[in-house]
Amino acid sequence: MIDKVAWIELVDGRVLSTRSKGKDTYYLPGGKREPGESDVETLVREISEELSVQLDPATAVHLGTFEAQAHGHPTGVTVRMTCYTAQYSGTLAAASEIAEIVWLSAADTARIAPVDHLIFAHLQATGLLHR
User: Which domains does the chain have, with CATH numbers?
Assistant: First the structure.
């Protein structure tokens, strides 16, 4: 089981997504926790590293937890993605291993990782993500 935390940022019915250098698949921003980190601490650190913005921990709201086959891993390796929304300050900019920042809709599922399919379906079912 790969344990990850992701940030869900929605604007005008689209969700913020990222592509890492050397990859062709888009992932929700976030990452793996370091020893002793809480979900929110992991999220704040990862988003600062990847997108050059500061999340406000006091505004973090759990959106859901999703599990699926881990993209690029052998069959049977799953990823658990714990998702949060949170307000941020600063200007979004690709940093660290991030090559590109994009805003995706529900029509973009051919471009995303398997666990993100579940998250996109949830966001669409709740009316947050548009086609």
Answer: 2-125 (3.90.79.10)
